[in-house]
Amino acid sequence: MVDKKKIPQHVAIIMDGNGRWARRRGLARIEGHRRGLKVIKEIIRAADDLGVKYLTLYAFSSENWKRSHDEVDFLMAACQGFIEKELPGMMENGLRFRHIGRLQELSESLRRCIAHAEAETKNNKGLCVQLAFNYGARLEIVDAVKSIAQEVQSGRVNIGDIDEGLLARSLYTKDTPDPDLLVRTSGEERISNFLLWQLAYAEFYMTKKYWPDFSKREFLRAITEYQKRARRFGGVNG
């Protein structure tokens, strides 16, 4: 049973297995993504009900451009459609929307959609839904280093001022606490270039279920498992 007093502040999810879910059913990969969108809505509601403060969803990596044009085009359109459709509900329930990742490769209409959703929800105080779309952790770190280098070059930052805090504040997630719990679906046991810096002390929960089969029940199981872990952060308990 979930202990409401020990809810992780930030949960990050690698939503994996849409294509394999579809293939096992003789369906096109796109059908797996369609089913996966429904699961996203269910998990956002579950996280909000539990009192999770931040939910980061890995939706499209910077490596996913290697997929077929049809699949990429579908994912772009699906992202925009999801944001537009869910925005009224986010406003009604006080949810905040945020994008992390590189925007420049996205279409102008999707960039406008993202900017509009962020602006509309920025003052909401509830769950922050952080969508990692066209996101890659190595690129994020490169972008952070470039930003710091420009600050040093301009004289606004001294070399001696560079520390973990400055680097963290230069990442896409600069206003977000590090994840307490990482969930990955589909049976894979790797983090796939996701939040490499931020996951330093996260607890991991891996499930063999494909994302379209993930449910509120499985999400609660992940939270319950997290609550059994000892969070030592390099120290010693007892």
Q: Rg to the nearest angstrom?
A: 18 Å
- First and last CA, distance: 25 Å
CATH C-level name: Alpha Beta
Shape: globular
Short description:
With 238 residues, this protein is α/β, with parallel strands linked by helices. It has helices at 18-24, 29-50, 69-93, 108-121, 137-154, 164-169, 216-227; strands at residues 10-14, 54-61, 96-100, 128-135, 181-184, 203-206.
Report on this structure.
With 238 residues, the protein is an alpha/beta fold. Helix 2 (29-50) runs parallel beside helix 3 (69-93) and helix 3 runs parallel beside helix 4 (108-121). It has 7 helices and 6 strands. The longest helix has 25 residues, at 69-93. The chain has helices at 18-24, 29-50, 69-93, 108-121, 137-154, 164-169, 216-227, and strands at 10-14, 54-61, 96-100, 128-135, 181-184, 203-206. Strands 3-4-2-1-5-6 form a 6-stranded parallel sheet, with helices on both faces. Helices cover 44% and strands 14% of the residues. The chain has a single domain (4-136, 179-227), classed as Undecaprenyl pyrophosphate synthetase. The radius of gyration is 18 Å and the shape is globular. The mean pLDDT is 96.
Set out the fold topology.
Blueprint: E1 10-14, H1 18-24, H2 29-50, E2 54-61, H3 69-93, E3 96-100, H4 108-121, E4 128-135, H5 137-154, H6 164-169, E5 181-184, E6 203-206, H7 216-227
Parallel strand pairs: 1-2, 1-5, 2-4, 3-4, 5-6
Helix pairs in contact: 1-2, 2-3, 3-4
